[in-house]
Design a protein that fits this description.
The complex is a heterodimer of chains A (162) and B (399).
Chain A: H1 5-22, H2 28-36, H3 42-53, H4 61-73, H5 75-93, E1 105-107, H6 113-127, H7 131-138
Helix pairs in contact in A: 3-4, 3-5, 5-6
Chain B: H1 2-7, H2 34-46, E1 52-53, H3 86-96, E2 106-113, E3 120-127, E4 133-136, E5 141-143, H4 146-156, E6 176-178, E7 185-189, E8 203-205, H5 207-210, E9 220-226, H6 234-240, E10 242-243, E11 246-248, H7 249-255, E12 259-266, E13 272-281, E14 287-292, H8 297-317, E15 321-322, E16 362-364, H9 379-393
Parallel strand pairs in B: 5-16
Antiparallel strand pairs in B: 1-8, 2-3, 3-4, 6-13, 7-12, 7-15, 8-9, 9-12, 10-11, 13-14
Helix pairs in contact in B: 2-8
Classes of the chains: A mainly alpha (162), B alpha+beta (399).
């Protein structure tokens, strides 16, 4: 059953009350941050991660969204990353606004070893091994687009290019 | 030459390591890419290694009704027909022939011999969708199922007597000496833009094919390209962009246009094997092929030699980073061996005319007939063997 933000806030209020009553000390700031951090499904978390990591900007956001959509549809990606994405995203969620894409850098401090491995050696390396991503960085015609004339292509370019 | 004309090969006669050709290439070679001309070519030259054009089955000019390469870099599924593909070139010719009947959506299941075991009398198959059995009777049979399925079919067709362990396995050679090409590779940050990726290499070097004392180690061919798609570079690029706890995505992005991959195509001794897998079955209930690869000390020497070359090559390129040789050695999809051509059954499975030992009318066309595979792609040789067999079956001399 999908947990709503209201349910979570109510639960945390109860937990906080119980902690005070029992004498347990809980970090109020942590609790507050947990309340404020947006809920994300694993798919949304992975989507957000890819938008943060990739060579994206406001100018090519449509292309970014199209690429991420296709990435998530690949069974080998969905099956491998989705179980892990939500946890990693929660670690990073507090740092960046929802609409942020194309980060300049990520501070790996505070990430677990498994999260560092997933982010660094798996997801980032795979992302930047895609020809499509590399061509985006190099501002080259995408795969299937004629090098001399971007209006000639084998697949309609995303984001209105060409 | 005939195979080159049939397939359509573009190349230049600029290879100082090659034997003298008996005629020109059907098409001129592709012009060198920026990377080949400005980055890797000069670096190799500084080390006394000559880079030369890479003959390719991709049109450089219009050829036999197919257009030249457009450089759209979707080579594996060439949309223009510039790259040779049997379905675009030879299948249409076959379809128009009155002498040929194509049975689509069928699966060959086994070959049946006469009671004496002297010849094949029936090819048993199945219609894939309906599972309806079908049989084909012919005077002669040619197996051209590729490097894995050709030996597998001979194994599946084994039944009794001399063929208990597979057709042609009189001397116990069926399934032996499986080989492939290893493609060790490294990722290099050249420190400067390497140019756009054409989609295929235009420059290679046969220096280590021709100048290697093969008593000491295997030969190999060198090639490279800007961040080749089948050799992922993201792992190294991400690591190089990480300093302490900071992953600089900006630095990563700036480095990608400067990154190239250098690879070798190395021969192996061929100590692997192919057999039927008792634990895994295909969709029709027959055992699939099971491959066991074995690397020898001789095989590993090419990796050592390649690794030893890299620091000098990186310096010659002015590289800022050179990765270690990838542990994923990248089998090259060039499986060979297991139904070797030989003079006697004790040495192979088929004779020099590709006729399977012990059978009067079964022939093989596949890289599985290679007794050994050198450090070069096998496709042209397979095509040449097919043309040679066709001439032999027609009683004429191959051109």
């Amino acid at each position: 059953m999908k947990e709503s933000v209201q349910d979570r806030r109510q639960f945390l209020k109860i937990l906080f009350s119980l902690s005070v009553a029992s004498g347990l000390v809980l970090d109020a700031e942590l609790l507050l941050a947990a309340v404020k951090a947006p809920l994300r499904s694993p798919g949304e978390s992975l989507r957000k991660l890819l938008l943060l990591l990739g060579p994206w900007s406001v100018d090519n956001r449509k292309q970014a969204e199209d690429f991420v959509l296709r990435f998530l549809r690949m069974e080998q990606n969905a099956g491998f990353y989705l179980p892990k994405a939500a946890g990693l995203m929660q670690s990073l969620a507090r740092r960046f606004p929802d609409d942020r894409i194309g980060l300049a850098e990520i501070d790996l401090t505070g990430l677990s070893e498994q999260e560092r491995l997933l982010l660094l050696l798996k997801l980032t390396s795979q992302l930047y091994s895609f020809m499509e991503v590399r061509f985006t960085i190099a501002n080259e015609p995408q795969v299937g687009e004629c090098q001399d004339d971007r209006l000639r292509y084998t697949r309609p370019p995303a984001g209105g290019k060409g | 030459m005939h195979a080159e004309r049939e397939i359509g090969v573009a190349g230049n006669e600029d290879n100082p390591y090659a034997a003298r050709r008996s005629g020109p290439f059907p098409m001129p070679g592709h012009i060198f890419s920026y990377f080949d001309r400005e980055i890797i070519g000069p670096a190799l030259k500084r080390l006394g290694i000559t880079g030369h054009s890479c003959p390719r089955a991709t049109n450089s000019i219009p050829y036999r009704g197919r257009m030249e390469c457009m450089g759209c870099r979707i080579c594996k599924f060439c949309p223009t027909g510039a790259r040779y593909s049997p379905d675009r070139v030879h299948v249409p010719i076959i379809e128009q022939s009155e002498r040929v009947t194509i049975l689509e959506k069928t699966s060959l299941r086994r070959l049946e011999t006469d009671p004496q075991g002297n010849r094949i009398v029936i090819a048993h198959g199945l219609e894939v969708e309906t599972r309806t059995p079908l049989v084909v009777r012919a005077k002669r049979f040619v197996l051209a199922l590729g490097g894995l399925e050709t030996p597998r079919m001979l194994l599946l067709s084994g039944h009794r007597g001399a063929y208990r362990d597979g057709l042609g396995n009189i001397g116990g050679q069926l399934g032996r000496n499986f080989s492939d090409h290893f493609n060790p590779h490294v990722t290099i940050n050249t420190g400067r833009p390497v140019g756009s990726r054409l989609g295929f290499e235009t420059l290679i070097s046969d220096h280590f094919r021709a100048r290697t004392d093969r008593r000491q180690g295997p030969a190999f061919m060198l090639f490279g390209a800007p961040a080749m798609d089948w050799f992922p570079i993201g792992n190294e690029a991400a690591i190089w962009a990480t300093k302490g706890n900071i992953l600089s995505l900006q630095e990563l992005r700036e480095s990608v246009p400067q990154i190239a991959t250098l690879a070798a195509m190395t021969e192996l001794e061929g100590r692997g094997s192919l057999e039927l897998d008792p634990d895994r079955l295909d969709a029709f209930g027959a055992p699939v092929a099971k491959i066991t690869m074995k690397l020898t000390d001789w095989d590993r020497r090419s990796l050592e030699k390649f690794a030893g070359l890299l620091p000098r090559l990186g310096d010659a390129m002015g590289a800022t980073h050179v990765s270690e040789v990838s542990r994923e050695l990248g089998l090259g999809y060039h499986h060979s061996g297991t139904t070797a051509m030989a003079k006697t059954p004790a040495q192979g499975v088929c004779d020099p005319d590709l006729k399977v030992f012990g059978l009067d009318n079964l022939y093989l066309v596949s890289n599985s007939v290679f007794p050994h595979m050198g450090a070069n792609p096998p496709t042209l040789t397979i095509a040449a063997l097919a043309l040679r067999l066709a001439a032999h079956l027609e009683g004429r001399t191959a051109s």
